[in-house]
Design brief:
heterotrimer, A alpha/beta (443), B alpha+beta (135), C alpha/beta (484), B: OB fold (Dihydrolipoamide Acetyltransferase, E2P), globular, C: 484 residues, alpha/beta, Aspartate Aminotransferase, domain 2, Aspartate Aminotransferase, domain 1, 2 domains, 14 helices
Chain lengths: 443, 135, 484
């Protein structure tokens, strides 16, 4: 096996040094009763070439671009990934290293993550960002736990337009902890109804996603104005960070903690993971943050350098009193998103965000003209809800046969929204693609 | 780290078994950590202090001291209410290392029962205790 | 002696991203605008972030230069104990990047995602076979996430018996993630000490196990690199009082094909695909932490589960007792693909992987035990733990020695862990290192110890060869600067 360098002679020489008769004898401290009785029942090893064929066959069965046109967002977005991104992340000095515990020989990762933290903080309009969480969903759960620690309250208000799968993850994390979670309903325009908030007190946090699950842009300042003067924190969640190239960022609207999924920034969709959980907050709350942080310092000669810092928050020091149990994070995906943000630059980000907005508006406009209903009036970014006619599922199936995925049916998540679909159009969809979709829908 | 006989242990404070010192002045008690405690912890990078008005029972955790790689809890030597905290420590936690008995004080408190102070150690008793720990 | 691996070379400086570029540049080919500008409600519009604008060449140079300041497994021996820094096969990267996988949307209908579902289903089966456990979830995103899943399963199990419990037994050698994960489920960790042989005694567990205790979290082999030989008696004690046994599989690389974890009393086990199954550590992640359970705990596994019927694969939510969802979608599928390819490439030879990992660790232990203090002198598993006790006279610490090791061209081992060994040096070579490379490492460590005797000052000053010397972590923590 090419990953195992030992020759028979190496093994013999080494066993002699160790004082064991055989490889099996190395395990003498394992009681006989603990030994496995049968051999491993696994397929015979594949050669590299057999593996290529096997994996190609599996991959070919998947519905993905360019063969399929997928108009589905809902937390996983198809964006162009420039060749530079995978090439740079393919530098094995990045991907075959581990957590930068030894800063002298990890400055590449450390400076890269420091820059990532900075770009995320700029993007979200926040003061500090951490070195990443697993994904947008776990980041939200951790944000709510953090808000609860800061405010010493276990009562949370969560918008029903936060990604339904994220809300389920929140319930799992908070399940054993005796929390009270109040779901805020939504208004007719596709945004969260905050009217109940006036009658609630002692909340640890109000959690809102913008753009929300329907693609609609929320007015976060409504919430921060309501919570002003109270201890309640505004936790802003997101699934599409590209939106902040166009719309107001959460920080400028008074968010205290901002968390979300960064997959859109150069990370392949990969059937939902790995992505990157972006996590930022106001500086006042920095010591309550979960996850790793990279800070700037200098070496013995006074040269600028970077280290992991504020580690006393973390599990390897504070154990059961840590701010989180997280150890491995999504470091390489964080780095990926930083390379992508650096490639776009501020100018490119604004242009690409505007293009996403206009592509989706174009599709919305054509759908309207074709007689389909757009039920929610609020502004959207690159995805939106369409109400089709009853019995649309057969059309949906026909479109699948034509290699088009006409959005995500919403009824499994919102039973009241039968025949409602969430459609997404990013820069990857050309006008021609969208015209073809409309033609097929109306055929 | 310092040897026991190198410790700076002033006479004008009382010591607890958890290495906090207390000094009575004008009916208030000032509390900090001993030279031994700061030396054990090494370079202190952050100190979490209680809010003014907080009340503690003797032995309660009233704050934490952090070095880069360790966290230590501070235990209150007497039942009391917090009157003031040393706000200089926020920007300069190193004061606790440099000057633990003066500029590095942690909190001022109002004792519930001043007689609790009688249970604390003077310098000689504390020094004996430290020597005993070394063995 | 042959020339040392560590040397000096031309290293280029590189400023922060924010100090580069010029407004108006762009490093991306912006897609053609083939639609008109639509009206935009001014009340939602923002300014956009003030990112630096860079050309493609600037971006490439920036990150290429940064990468040269890093040490990875592809650079050299990376014996970071408990992290299993084995070689990351390149073909696995290629397979995970296939457009069908990389471009797959997670909410596609099952009929359009058979390939990835089959991969997941088969991987579950392989992991069950390797561990002798009955059912597997791939959803946890890392080891600690797997621990959380495991603790949630404990919690749900005791809840289902109508008797929730409040404590959990955690040995002093455990990773910090263990007590932190347990605390997330409201469990209060009860710490227990290992005995003089470095393993847990059944009596120790019997003394603390009661009807208030949910169970035990045990790492086997433990972080001293020793097999917990009393595991079966311990499991009996815990089970007899209604508790469950959780095994942290961080060190599974020692026992594949040797020990069937499911046959020795373990109820729940997590694996680390980024350790045992060769997926890259990525400078901190992403990992993947599948959780394996026995049949009676299967109903509690996270949903959705990957199932199969008549050769068709699908996701199923129909498990009413499930602890719920832990990840927005199904976990780190891209990482699973790499681990799946690794298993397909090795098959039953995974047993050989463990044998050679253990051989390499014992070889280092034997060769260095006359040089470094070895607190537990007995056959080890995949890693061995030394200490700096022999260097006390020179006032040279573990930190000094491993920093000097950098100059010789090696990544330092894990240091100051486990906590039970003062000044611990935890070396895990992994099976992918050849005898020649181990010999150079051993020789280098001996030289470091010689340096410590002859010139301790040089060690206090190490390393000298990397781009930067020792960094001031104290000022970084006193005055945190976390953004540009």
């Amino acid at each position: 096996m090419r990953y195992l360098p030992h020759t028979e002679q190496d093994i013999a020489e080494m066993l002699q040094v160790v004082g064991a008769d055989s490889l099996d004898a190395l395990f003498s401290t394992i009681p006989e009763a603990c030994r496995r009785k049968n051999d491993l029942n696994l397929p015979e090893p594949m050669t590299e070439w057999e593996l290529n064929a096997h994996m190609a066959a599996l991959a070919d069965s998947m519905a993905a671009a360019p063969h399929y046109k997928v108009y589905m967002g809902a937390g996983s977005y198809e964006h162009h990934i420039p060749a530079t991104v995978p090439f740079l992340l393919g530098r094995s000095e990045f991907y075959t290293a581990y957590t930068p515990y030894q800063p002298e020989i990890s400055q590449g990762t450390l400076q890269g993550i420091f820059e990532y933290q900075s770009l995320v903080a700029f993007l979200l309009g926040m003061e500090v960002a951490n070195a990443s969480m697993y994904d947008g969903a776990s980041a939200l759960a951790e944000a709510l736990l953090m808000a609860s620690r800061i405010t010493r309250s276990k009562k949370l208000a969560v918008s029903s337009l936060i990604h339904p799968l994220y809300r389920r993850v929140v319930r799992t994390y908070l399940g054993p902890g005796d929390f009270e979670i109040i779901e805020l309903p939504y208004c007719a325009d596709g945004r969260t109804d905050f009217s109940q908030l006036t009658s609630m007190d002692g909340l640890a946090a109000v959690a809102v996603q913008s753009p929300n699950f329907f693609g609609c842009i929320e007015d976060l300042s409504l919430v921060s104005n309501m919570t002003q003067g109270s201890k309640t924190l505004l936790v802003a969640s997101f699934t599409e960070p590209l939106a902040f190239g166009l719309i107001k960022n959460p920080g400028s609207q008074g968010a205290d903690i901002v968390c979300g999924e960064g997959q859109s920034f150069g990370i392949p969709q990969s059937y939902g993971g790995p992505g990157v959980g972006m996590f930022a907050c106001k500086k006042d709350y920095m010591r309550n943050m979960p996850g790793r942080l990279v800070g700037k310092t200098h070496d013995k000669d006074g040269k600028q350098g970077f280290v992991l810092t504020l580690s006393t928050r973390e599990q390897h020091i504070r154990r059961e009193k840590a701010t989180s149990n997280i150890c491995s994070n999504s470091g390489l995906c964080a780095m990926t998103s930083a390379v992508y943000m650096a490639s776009l630059g501020g100018t490119g980000l604004r242009e690409l965000a505007r293009l996403n907005y206009d592509k989706a508006e174009y599709l919305k406009d054509r759908l309207c003209r074709a007689g389909f209903k757009i039920p929610f009036a609020a502004s959207t970014f690159n995805e939106f809800v369409v109400q089709f006619k009853p019995g649309f599922d057969t059309t949906y199936q026909r479109l699948l046969d034509e290699k088009m995925v006409a959005g995500l049916p919403l009824s499994p998540y919102y039973p009241e929204l039968t025949d409602h679909y969430l459609l997404c159009a990013t820069e990857t969809k050309t006008r021609k693609d969208m015209d073809r979709l409309i033609d097929s829908l109306t055929a | 780290m310092k040897e026991i006989n190198e410790m700076n242990l002033p006479e004008n404070v009382l010591y607890s078994t958890d290495h906090e010192w207390s000094r009575v002045k004008d009916g208030k008690v000032r509390i900090g950590i001993s030279d031994y405690a700061q030396d054990q912890l090494g370079e202190i990078v952050f100190i979490e202090v209680p809010e003014i008005g907080a009340t503690f029972k003797k032995g309660d955790v009233f704050g934490t001291l952090e070095s880069i790689k360790a966290v230590a809890e501070m235990l209150i030597p007497i039942t009391c209410e917090v009157l003031a905290v040393n706000t200089d420590l926020e920007g300069s936690p190193e004061l606790v290392n440099q000057d633990p008995y003066d500029k590095g004080w942690i909190i001022d408190v109002k004792p519930d029962d001043s007689s609790e102070l009688n249970q604390l150690m003077n310098k000689d008793a504390y020094l004996e205790m430290l020597k005993g720990m070394g063995k | 002696m042959q020339e040392m691996v560590g040397t000096t070379g031309l290293i280029l400086n590189e400023p922060l991203l924010t100090e580069r570029g010029r407004k108006g540049r762009c490093g991306i080919s912006l897609p053609r605008r083939d639609v008109e500008y639509f009206p935009l409600d001014a009340s939602i519009a923002g300014e956009g972030p003030n990112f630096p604008d860079l050309s493609e060449v600037e971006v490439v140079r920036h990150y290429t230069r940064l990468s040269t300041w890093n040490f990875g497994v592809d650079t050299g021996l990376y014996p970071l104990g408990s992290c299993t820094m084995k070689y990351n096969p390149k073909t696995n990267e290629r397979q995970a990047a296939l457009p069908g996988f990389a471009g797959a949307h997670p909410l596609l209908p099952a009929s359009l995602s058979q390939g990835v579902l089959k991969m997941m289903y088969d991987l579950q089966g392989f992991l069950a076979e390797l561990t002798c456990m009955d059912a597997v979830t791939l959803q946890p995103a890392a080891g600690a996430h797997g621990e959380l899943a495991g603790m949630l399963i404990f919690h749900a199990y005791h809840q289902s018996k109508g008797a929730p419990r409040s404590k959990i037994i955690v040995p002093d050698t455990a990773h910090g993630t263990n007590p932190a994960s347990a605390a997330l489920c409201g469990y209060r960790p009860v710490n227990v000490q290992s005995n003089e042989q470095g393993v847990l005694s059944p009596e120790t567990i019997a003394a603390v196990m009661d009807e208030e205790t949910a169970g035990i979290m045990i790492t086997n082999p433990n972080t001293l690199g020793l097999f917990e030989e009393n595991i079966q008696q311990i499991a009996e004690i815990v089970h007899a009082r209604g508790g469950l046994v959780y095994a942290d599989g961080a060190n599974m690389n020692a026992i594949m094909g040797i020990v069937g974890v499911g046959d020795i009393g373990v109820d729940v086990l997590h694996l680390n695909l980024h350790k045992t199954f060769s997926t890259p550590h990525g400078g901190g992640g992403p990992g993947s932490g599948p959780v394996c359970v026995k049949t009676y705990l299967e109903p509690f596994l996270p949903v959705p589960r990957v199932s199969e019927k008549d050769g068709r694969y699908f996701l199923s939510e129909d498990f009413p007792q499930s602890v719920g969802k832990l990840h927005g979608f199904y976990g780190h599928v891209g990482v699973m693909i790499r681990a799946y390819c690794y298993i397909l490439s090795l098959g039953p030879e995974l047993k050989k992987v463990s044998q050679l990992a253990v051989l390499n660790a014992n070889y280092i232990k034997e060769k260095l035990k006359d040089t470094l203090h070895l607190p537990y002198d007995r056959p080890c598993m995949h890693e061995c733990v030394f200490s700096d006790k022999n260097q006390e006279a020179e006032k040279v610490t573990t930190l000094d020695m491993v920093k000097r090791l950098i100059d010789y061209g090696f990544h330092p081992p894990t240091i100051y862990f486990p906590l039970v060994v003062h000044g611990a040096i935890m070396i895990e070579p992994t099976e992918t290192e050849s005898k020649e490379d181990l010999d150079v490492f051993i020789e280098s460590f001996k030289n470091v110890v010689k340096d410590a005797k002859e010139n301790p000052e040089m060690l206090h000053d190490a390393p000298r060869k990397p781009k930067l010397r020792r960094l001031d972590e104290t000022s970084a923590a006193r005055h945190p600067c976390l953004t540009c």
